[in-house]
């Protein structure tokens, strides 16, 4: 993570709920062990990018969770996936809620890494 990305991320997290920080940092730390990516910090989301975004971590201040979206070429049939968005392109967007850092597991990290490999 570059110094500018780190500064943007810290500013973003300082303005959000504490458990959001824990979830986001857990996801980023796990991914940084295995892949190289940049961050695009926006008002209510953080995009994880290689050349283009491959995943997004979003917040809704009124809710007690973070949601994560990532790409996959086929529909993932898993109860953790709360929404599947099929657009005109070849990739399908999958969304799942994350309520705590305990939910950041190998399965979620693998899905996000696969999304990275697909768009790379």
Structure notes:
This protein is α+β, with helices and mostly antiparallel strands and about 120 residues long. The protein has one domain: Yope Regulator, Chain: A (2-Layer Sandwich). The chain has helices spanning about 5-15, 20-30, 105-120; strands at about 40, 45-50, 55-60, 65-70, 80-85, 90-100. It has a 6-stranded antiparallel β-sheet. A hairpin with a 3-residue loop joins strand 2 (about 45-50) and strand 3 (about 55-60). The two termini are about 20 Å apart. The mean pLDDT is about 85.
Topology:
Elements: H1 3-14, H2 18-32, E1 38-41, E2 45-49, E3 53-59, E4 66-72, E5 81-86, E6 92-98, H3 106-119
Portion in helices = 25-40%
Chain oligomer state: single chain
Topology, number of strands: 6
Q: Please name the CATH architecture.
A: 2-Layer Sandwich
The total of helices stands at 3
Structural class comes to alpha+beta
Run of helices and strands: HHEEEEEEH
Q: What topology, given as strand order, has the largest sheet?
A: 1-2-3-4-6-5
CATH uppermost class? Alpha Beta
Low-confidence stretches: none
Shape: globular
Q: Terminal Cα separation, in Å?
A: 18 Å
Q: Please name the CATH topology.
A: Yope Regulator, Chain: A
Largest sheet: 6 strands, antiparallel
C-alpha-based Rg, rounded: 14 Å
Strand content: 25-35%
């Amino acid at each position: 993570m570059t110094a500018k990305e780190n500064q943007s991320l810290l500013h973003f997290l300082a303005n959000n709920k504490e458990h959001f920080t824990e979830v986001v940092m857990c996801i980023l730390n796990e991914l940084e062990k295995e892949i190289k990516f940049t961050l695009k910090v926006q008002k209510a989301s953080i995009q994880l990018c290689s050349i283009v975004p491959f995943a997004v971590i979003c917040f809704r201040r009124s809710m007690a969770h973070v949601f994560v979206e990532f790409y996959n070429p086929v529909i993932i049939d898993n109860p953790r996936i709360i929404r599947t968005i099929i657009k005109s392109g070849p990739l399908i967007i999958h969304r799942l809620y994350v309520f705590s850092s305990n939910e950041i597991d190998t399965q979620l990290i693998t899905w996000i890494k696969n999304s990275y490999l697909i768009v790379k």
